[in-house]
Specification:
By secondary structure, the protein is an alpha+beta fold. It has 2 domains: 100 residues, Phosphorylase Kinase, domain 1 (2-Layer Sandwich), CATH 3.30.200; 160 residues, Transferase(Phosphotransferase), domain 1 (Orthogonal Bundle), CATH 1.10.510.10. It has 11 helices and 10 strands. Strand 8 and strand 9 form a beta hairpin.
């Protein structure tokens, strides 16, 4: 927990200028972005660039999070978390506050993005997330407090980014931070040991969360309640085999879960194509000769709309000429019979 006196020092007003003791870089506070047990995150301005600045009285916590961001930087493409920009201390009122500066990531959170763009993006984003988690796990870390609020979708093209690395834990240790709904310990389905399967359980619960935006609390608890919740939602049935395996800790890694999700997508696509009605493809010769009837085999080629209009127009002129001729004959007969 943060010391209350130092906690007050971490609460600064917009316009405050934070100047690092060692690197002499200055940051102007714009507004507070978030507050947690390990510190406060602010939106700040450095020169002409917006950045996110986190300060804390807990130097060990800052060091741990900085190490996580450095580990993220080793992953190709820097796709997981924000890029680390600076680490320093700030001397304020005879006290020293540790802080670090990172890239400011903008965009909607995971669930907000899906609500806006539609469920067709669900599989794509989960495939991205599992790929990123595989690389994080390969680097010896477990994200820990994995939830939609910690996932921002940037773009275009849409891409998942992690914004809060406070719960990220070295493999083998106890999870530092968690949120009950995504925590397998809460559901009685595993320990809080930092391992790949802990994150994959959270991924499965985020899948469940997409169909239950307001979440739900534990009642009967355990696997039976979660399984029943999945079977009540059609959108979750498509992913049921993958979700159930992840909830039971049956995946050795994110790569395996990602492969199963891909297989399900292929099966779903093939099934959709099989039930899709076959479209009639016209013969190219019919398209070129739509106004010519083909009497071979007692079949006829339907006329095109243009040919139909031409035929109807021609018929109208013939009818008009016929009427003129009839009227002319009648007028001549009338004139002949009324001669003096």
């Amino acid at each position: 927990m943060m010391n209350h006196s130092l906690k007050n020092l971490c609460k600064v007003s917009p316009g405050t200028i934070i100047t690092g003791k060692w690197h002499s870089q200055s940051y102007t506070i714009i507004k507070e972005l978030g507050f947690g047990a390990n510190g406060v995150v602010y939106l700040a301005k450095h020169k002409d660039t917006q950045v996110a600045l986190k300060m804390s009285d807990n130097g060990m916590s800052i060091t741990s999070e900085v190490n996580v961001l450095k580990s993220f930087a080793k992953v190709q493409g820097h796709s997981l978390g924000p890029c680390l920009l600076d680490v320093d201390d700030w001397d304020q009122n005879n006290s020293r506050i540790s802080f670090y500066v990172m890239e400011y990531i903008q965009g909607p959170d995971f669930l907000s993005f899906l609500q806006t763009r539609g469920p067709s993006w669900t599989s794509v984003l989960f495939l991205q997330l599992l790929k990123d988690l595989e690389e994080l796990h390969q680097n010896g870390w477990v994200f820990g407090d994995l939830k939609p609020e910690n996932l921002i979708v940037t773009g275009p093209p849409p891409k998942i980014r992690c914004i809060d690395v406070g719960g990220t834990t070295i493999k083998g240790r106890a999870i530092k931070e968690f949120t009950e709904f995504y925590d397998r310990g809460y559901w009685g389905l595993g320990s809080r040991k930092a391992e790949s399967s802990y994150d994959l359980f959270a991924v499965a619960m985020i899948m469940v969360n997409t169909a239950y935006p307001k979440r739900f609390t534990k009642t009967t608890g355990g696997f039976s309640q979660l399984k029943e919740a999945i079977r009540q939602k059609q959108e979750l049935k498509n992913f049921e085999p993958v979700i159930l395996k992840a909830l039971q800790g049956q995946y050795s890694g994110a790569k395996e879960m990602r492969a199963d999700l891909l297989d399900l997508m292929v099966v779903k696509k093939n099934a959709a194509e099989q039930i899709k009605p076959r479209e009639m493809t016209p013969d190219p010769t019919q398209l070129k000769n739509t106004d010519v009837k083909n009497t071979k085999g007692n079949q006829s080629v339907p006329l095109s709309r243009q040919s139909y209009r031409r035929k109807k127009k021609k018929s109208g002129w013939m009818e008009f000429l016929f009427i003129i001729i009839v009227l002319g004959v009648l007028y001549a007969w009338y004139t002949f019979n009324n001669l003096p």
